[in-house]
Structures are given as structure tokens and as C-alpha cells.
């Protein structure tokens, strides 16, 4: 209620609203009236979120990620890759109103048969000069800075295979840190967590 006042919302006539003049000891959720008041002040959020699907290849031990529904459906029809669900949530590559999001570039490593994602322009430019990487375009959009609504996507280098692994799950990050063949490369970018979105 007080945060609502702090961002400029007055009391509501709706008894269902958190912003009603009388505090409720049982209402802890935003009502449509509360949401409408915030939208009236700050505008509608028009981000087009997209699921980043994750597949596991039991033959190579690697993972495959895609934001494309068509690609997801095509890969699901194959027996090689096992679908593991949504790894994290980004913004669509064609999103125009992206609130500071940056492109996440996808490269195919033709020697390994795996993909690498980067949100950094310098790394993108470097990878484009290497013979074994094929630039496949913008896979999706993400953020370079963390916020209260995003979560870090961690990147690991597999020293045994030469591939890369990404995870937004903090428990999985801890588990992979304990596997000696994986070298932690840091936070690759920030997306929305599939556990909270």
C-alpha cells in the first residue's frame, strides 16, 4: 500500500484494491484496479517474452537451446535430443520495445555440433573471425544488467568436449561448479527465470 503511494498512486474506491483507504489484513494481491492505476501513470509494459527451450543430448552430454517454436517442434520430432523444458525466458529477437535489452547472438560450432550464445559485441566480432563458428543471427534478447525481475544465466565451458553450458537455475549452477570438467565463465546475461515467470 505504501509503495503504491510512493510511486504516485492515490487511494482507490475499490474495496478489493490494495490501494483502498482501509488496510486489509487478508488481501495481499494486486487487483485490476491497482494494476490499472500503475499503468495509467507509467504506461503498459509491451515486452514480448519468449521461452528459451532446453534439450539434452545424451550421446554427447551437451545441451541445445532455442527460442524458436518451429525449431523446438522440429527437434522434438527427433530421437537424439531429449526435451528438458524451458531453461529461462528472454525477449523475442524482433522485440522493438525492449527496455534496454540487447541481442544474444547464436553461433554454431561446426566441429563440435554445438551452439554458443553471447551478448557481448566484442566476443561476437571475435567468434565471427573463427573458421569453426558459423554465425546464425540473434537467438533472442536479454539484459546485461540485473534487476529485481531478472535472473543471471550462467555460462560454463566444458573442457572435455569444448562446448558450452548455460543455466539460470542457482541450484544447478552450484552442482555444475562441483564438476571438474566444467569451467565457470561467469554470468552470460540476465533473463527471466522459468521458475518465477
Give structural notes:
There is one protein chain. With 197 residues, the protein is of the alpha+beta class. The chain is built from five helices and nine strands, in the order H-H-E-E-H-E-E-E-H-E-E-E-H-E. The strands form three sheets. A three-stranded antiparallel beta sheet has the order 2-1-3, covered by helices on one side. It is elongated. The model has no long low-confidence stretch (mean pLDDT 88).
Labels describing this entry:
elongated, alpha+beta, 197 residues, three-stranded antiparallel beta sheet, single chain
Per DSSP, the total helix count is 5
What percentage of the residues does DSSP assign to strands (E)? Answer: 25-35%
> If strands are numbered along the chain, what order do they take across the biggest sheet?
2-1-3
This entry's quaternary arrangement is single chain
Contiguous runs where pLDDT drops below 50 for at least 5 residues: none
Q: What does the radius of gyration come to?
A: 21 Å
Helices and strands in order:
Layout: H1 2-6, H2 32-42, E1 49-56, E2 63-66, H3 69-76, E3 82-91, E4 102-109, E5 114-118, H4 121-128, E6 133-142, E7 151-158, E8 164-167, H5 170-177, E9 182-191
Antiparallel strand pairs: 1-2, 1-3, 4-5, 4-6, 7-8, 7-9
Summarize the structure.
This protein has 197 residues and is α+β, with helices and mostly antiparallel strands.
Amino acid at each position: 500500500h505504501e509503495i503504491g503511494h510512493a510511486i504516485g498512486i492515490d487511494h482507490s474506491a475499490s474495496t478489493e484494491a490494495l490501494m483502498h483507504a482501509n488496510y486489509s489484513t487478508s488481501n495481499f494481491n494486486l487487483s485490476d484496479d491497482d494494476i490499472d492505476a500503475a499503468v495509467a501513470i507509467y504506461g503498459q509494459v509491451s515486452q514480448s517474452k519468449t521461452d528459451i527451450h532446453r534439450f539434452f543430448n545424451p550421446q554427447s552430454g551437451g545441451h541445445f537451446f532455442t527460442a524458436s517454436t518451429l525449431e523446438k517442434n522440429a527437434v522434438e520430432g527427433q530421437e537424439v535430443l531429449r526435451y528438458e523444458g524451458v531453461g529461462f525466458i528472454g525477449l523475442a529477437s524482433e522485440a522493438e520495445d525492449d527496455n534496454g535489452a540487447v541481442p544474444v547472438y547464436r553461433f554454431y560450432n561446426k566441429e563440435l555440433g554445438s551452439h554458443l550464445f553471447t551478448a557481448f559485441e566484442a566476443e561476437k566480432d571475435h567468434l565471427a573471425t573463427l573458421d569453426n563458428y558459423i554465425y546464425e543471427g540473434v537467438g533472442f534478447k536479454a539484459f546485461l544488467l540485473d534487476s529485481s525481475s531478472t535472473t543471471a544465466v550462467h555460462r560454463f565451458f566444458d573442457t572435455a568436449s569444448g562446448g558450452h553450458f548455460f543455466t539460470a537455475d542457482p541450484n544447478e549452477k552450484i552442482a555444475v561448479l562441483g564438476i571438474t570438467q566444467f569451467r565457470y565463465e561467469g554470468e552470460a546475461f540476465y533473463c527471466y527465470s522459468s521458475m518465477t515467470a
